Amino acid sequence: MNTVLIVDDELIIRQGLKCIIEWNEFGFEIIGEASNGKDALDFILQKKPDVVMLDIRIPKLSGLEVAEQARKQGYQGKIIILSGFSDFKYAQEAIRYNVEYYLTKPIDEEELAKTIQKIGKNLEKETRHQEVMAHYFAKARDSILFDILEGNSGLGQAELTEMGLYAEEYQVVIYEKYSRHSDSACYRFSDLLKVANEENSSYESISKENNEILLLKGNFILNKFQEFLAHYEKEQKPQANSPLDSLFITYGCIVNTPDDIHISYQEALRLLQRRFFCEHRQHTIGYDQLPDLLKHGTYELTAQKLQDYRERLIGIIQAAKRNQMAEVLNELENNLYYAAEDIPKIKLYLTDLYLSIKERLAHLYHNESLPAVV
């Protein structure tokens, strides 16, 4: 429903304007009235009605002065100037303040109805246009964010500032929602950090491959995120049905320039891919847990190493030494953590190891039932 303010210093005229047409039938609702220019201007700036019916000759501020000051202070609604004088000078001056509608008193019912119908159609068109523009702006902004995350934006500080993307420091966070009941995984990142993200002032959010990618901007939100991580470390194991129980979060390092955002993003992305190595019920993993391949070296997944582990594990199984089994498996896990191959290849390597052990044990203990691979 579009909203209307009626401004006239005569009570009988204000009452008449409220009754002269069926406003609701045209999609309008009268939300206020004023008898002088000062009250009218205050109401316009506070309530921002869609339409103002504004008499020229009113106390304190004239109708044209109200229109002028309202426009200067950002009012974008429709203004209908009412005047008892059919003087073209008023219409000329009104045009300067983007006033498109001018009616002379006494107000003709049919003329007012036509004007309101026309305004209603124009407001509807403008709303649709704004929705379309907002849609395309969001798509363009998402595209720019992707470029920034990938290190391909090429935008300068002035352009980033204009878009609200410039900050003194950044950090990229990726979080994945998972739940047996998808409706229950409805927590927002701002809820977890207990912050208001008005106009994307604290962080930018973008979805990719069913994950939410967040670009934290500035010291305030980065500190909030550190507080959140510290709180999580104290909890260790989140309670069932808590936000953390249905989230997995990775985060890259803090960087100080827009050109380095891609570094933080790539770290968070690599950590997401290495979730395979996380402990049971571990819900966060950060850049400091990435393997330092330069310092530690790369572990190669060779057939000889697979055969060595197979023989060692078969020997331990035959000797029924559980402690040694745990030690060898921990050693294998640590080695695989520094493997250069991706997670699917690591999983395949482990599957091959399991099947080769199972095959050997089947020959040694052919009367025993061995579990199948899962």
Distance between the termini: 59 Å
What is the overall pLDDT average?
84
β-strand percent reads 15-25%
The helix/strand class is: alpha/beta
Number of strands: 10
The radius of gyration over CA amounts to 34 Å
Shape: elongated
The number of helical runs is 13
* Model regions low in confidence, pLDDT < 50 over at least 5 residues: 180-185
Q: Main sheet: which strands, in order across? A: 2-1-3-4-5
The proportion of residues forming helix, as a percent range, comes to 40-55%
H/E element string?
EHEHEHEHEHHEHEEHEHEHHHH
Largest sheet entry = 5 strands, parallel
Notes on the protein architecture:
Helix 4 links the parallel strand 4 (78-83) and strand 5 (101-104). The two termini are 59 Å apart. Helix 2 (37-47) packs parallel to helix 3 and helix 11 (303-319) runs antiparallel to helix 12 (322-337). Strands 2-1-3-4-5 form a five-stranded parallel sheet, sandwiched between helices. The protein has a five-stranded mixed sheet with strand order 7-8-6-9-10. The chain has helices at 11-19, 37-47, 63-72, 88-95, 109-150, 157-162, 189-193, 219-235, 261-273, 293-296, 303-319, 322-337, 343-364; strands spanning 2-7, 28-34, 51-55, 78-83, 101-104, 170-177, 203-208, 211-217, 247-251, 284-286. Mean pLDDT is 84; it is low at 180-185. By secondary structure, it is an alpha/beta fold. It is elongated, with a radius of gyration of 34 Å.
In short:
The protein is an alpha/beta fold and 374 residues long.
